[in-house]
Structures are given as C-alpha cells and as structure tokens.
Amino acid sequence: MDVTPHAVVRVSCGRSRREGLATAGLTTTGLLAVVVTLAIIALFIEGSVPFFREVQLGDFVEGTRWAPLHEPASYGILPLVGATVVTTGIALAVAMPLGLLSAVFLSTYAPSSVRRILKPALELLAGVPTVVYGFFALRFVTPLLQGFIPALGFWNGLSAGLVMGVMIVPYVASLSEDVLYAVPRSLWEGSYALGATRFETVVRVVVPAALSGLGAAFILAMTRAVGETMIVALAAGRTPTWPPDPTQPLLTLTTAIVNIATGDHEATAFIWSAVFAIGLLLFLTTLVLNTVSYLVIRRFRERYA
Amino acid sequence: MSDPGAPPILSTRAFSLWYGSHQALFQVTLDIAARQVTAIIGPSGCGKSTLIRAFNRLNDLIPGVRTSGEVLFRGEEIYGRGVDPVDVRRHIGMVFQKPNPFPKSVFENVAFGLRINGFRGNLAERVERALQQAALWDEVKDDLHRKTGYDLSGGQQQRLCIARALAVAPEVLLMDEPCSALDPIASAKIEDLIRELARSVTVVIVTHNMQQAARVSNWTAFMLLGELVEFGPTREVFTRPTDGRTEAYITGRFG
User: What is the dotted CATH code of the domain comprising B10-100+170-250?
Assistant: First the structure.
C-alpha cells in the first residue's frame, strides 16, 4: 500500500464533486413541491384578478345567488359554500366516529388475526376510485334513503355526504391509529395498573391524551371532504340553492368548477375567471386547514417527546 | 423486623414466564411479607421487572406471554381461571420507572382510580389523604385543579404517581425502579416515603441500586438470568450471602 497523500486528496475531490451534484439534485427535487405550490397560488391569484375587478368582493362573499350564466349575472358564493359545508358536515359526522372507533378497535381490541384482515380491507376502501363512490351514492344510497325520506331528490347532498364519509373513514382511522399509538405505552400501563379496563383506559386516558392529534385528524378529514369533487358532482347535483337543503340537489364549490370547466364556453369568456376565484377560495381553505392541523400535530408531538 | 409467623401476602410457587419462546423467569419461589419492604435486585435483564409485573399481571398486556406455576395473593391464585386481572390490579398498585402522570389536573390524576372504581364518598378528602401519604400535599394543595401532572418536577411527578396508586388503598404497592429517572435529592425523598409507607402497605421495589435496596428494604431477593438466586433478610443477604454469585454481584464484580 503506497497511497501518497496526493492520491488521497484526488480521490476525495471526485467524491466530493459527486456529493455536491447529489446535494444539488436532491435540493432541486425537494424545492419542486414548494415551487409548484407557489406557482398554483400565483396562477389562481392572477386568474382571479379580472373577476374581482368586475365583481364586488362583498357581492361575491355575501351574495346568496349563484347565476353566472344568467342576465344579469350574479356571483354570490354562499350557495356553493353552504353546499360544501353541508356535504362536509355530513361526511365528518360519519367519518369521525366510525374512523375513531375502528382505530380504537384496531389498536386495542382486535386480535392480531382480525387486524391482519381488517386493516388491509380498510385501506382498500381508500383505494376505491371516487367515481365509483359517486355512482354508488347516486344509484344505491339515494334509492335506499328514499325508502325513509320520500321527498329526497334524485340528486341530494345527504347521500353524497354519507358516501363521502365512508370514503374518508380509512384516512381518519389510519391517522387516529397513529395518534393513539403515539400515546406513550406508560400511560396505558399506568391506567391498567390502577385497575382500569381497556375501555376505561381508552376513553378516560388515551383519547384525552391524544385529543390534539385527533383534532388534527379531524381537520385533515375536513380538507379531504371540502376538496372532494367526483362524489358530489355525480350524486349531489348542480343546483345552487340558498339556504342549502341536504335532501335536495346542491352545488358545491368543487362541482361549480366542474360545471364551468366542462361547459361550452369560449376560452376568453369572463366565466373562466370565476373558476379561478372559486379555486382560490378552495385553495386558501385547504391551506389554512392543513396548516392548522400541522401546528396541532406538532404541539401534540412536542408534548410526548 | 421480620415476623415469621404471619402468612405472606404475596407468594410465587415455581413460577416461570415466557415471552414467546424466550423464557424470562425460571421456577421462582418466594414469599413477600405483609407490611414490609422487599427489594428485588440484580443486573439488567435478570427478570426483576418481569417478576414484579407478574404480581399485578401487567405482563398480560404483552402478546405471547405464557406462565406456569402460581402467584398467590392472600392465598388466592391470581393466574387462576376466572380471575380478572383488572380485579387483581385494584388491590395491587404500581409505580413505574419513569413518572407517568396522566395529562389531567393533579386532582384528577389522584382521583382517577377512585372514579373508575365507582367510589362514592368524599373524593376531595381521599385525594388529600393520598397526596399527604405521598408527601406531596403541601407542594400542590394550592394548584390541585390548575396544574397538570406535567407541570410538576420529575420527583413531584413520581410522588404524584405514588399518590395516585395509594388513593385506591391497595394492599401491595409495586415499585419498578421508581428512582431511576430522578436526581439524588428527589430519590432520597422517595426512599423516606417508602419506609414511611411500609407501616400500612406492603412494598415490593425493583432497583438496580444496591445501596438503595440496603437502605429501604427488610428483605432482599437477588435475581440472575431469570432465576431467584438468593432471598433473605436484607442484612444477611448483604453481609453474609450464601451464594457465591450474590456475593460477586454485591461486591461489584459484575453487574
């Protein structure tokens, strides 16, 4: 072995150049997500400028009539927001309890044999294409519900919301399970050691300890429901109504975009700028919800670090 | 100190325990005297924590645990058919290595065991008494509802956990290395407390600190590789050990 100092230096030069290239390459990839996000925000802001030049912000935010193609046109967003709130609310009312309970069941009660079957099955639910869910809501859930609610419309927010809830269950279950799992083993044991049953331990110690994390799961579920498009487009209808009635057709924010984008409009038509305005609103809503849930989760992690 | 006439409150009879295919305890037989302090010492991995967790069936929570032999609490086999571990744990309290207060107020931490046991009576009085027994009352009495367990220092947290265990008036208090996460001053307080508690409660303490065992306990069990090597009055185990391995351990030749 006669490695001269010179040779050693040369070898490390080549390696450090490769290391430098790898660093640059990976940094670029990492930044790509940020760049794309910023580009989307910029695009939506730019695209909605013509809209807000024409339409008063007050008329947009507080208006209760959405009729962009009528004369005179009206761009009140409230019917859309109301429809989204209704379908999201119904979805969360289904997804939160079901998701949390299945997380508790999977993490605490299920024997490993049951868990091995149930967990993949639950994840499969998350893999079902949303168009299938939408069709399921339209052709199965709605007729079923019409047996109980005769006045239920062919399109309605109720069955769209219910099916959307089922779609979100796996997300809530998976997030909640992680959160429950993150509650230190020592808290479970402390409770058991005082003679608490499994149920008492989960309800009185683990869930309260995991509350902020579960709150984050709730917010993320809300983001999914707010942004969900296919199910509401197929099953909730396209009628902007105010006040929103879950048993009747509704037009959610996402469906309104679909409506305009699939309609027969000239590329330069003013109505396209309305898409950007709605898109911006949706984007900001999910951004805020995601940020809040991120902050909540971080606080939860810090607590048990 | 010892009272050979009194029946033991806890005993094991040829007790063995497996985690899956790994055997952690081998035919352990010992008697724990009521209202005395029994220390279990031994190097890491010798099975002392496993043994103490066998007394309140906390090992049951780990999948794949099997046992053979008996653990008797007041003569009753706690691994017997039809015995619910939840009932066992209501009589045998436990304090853990790392303080594990619940994310609740000081008051609710102590009241927890009473509440789940459906205690009907003066909750505040019982909480106060438990906190006094754990020598924590004076430090927390003004913030019972305002402070949570996490707002306390490490030593206070551990005394809170002791108060929480004492609130349900257990007959036995198991302590699994209760001072290992504490500084010397906080440890000394816990040790004083243990001696004080032994007037009314049976204490079983696992410790890897031999001085601590010598200071607080009446009886000492020395374990090695899952076997009970030696068991006797603390003074004798430390001054005249009968087994060469015990002597080697307490004189610091391994561990």
Answer: 3.40.50.300
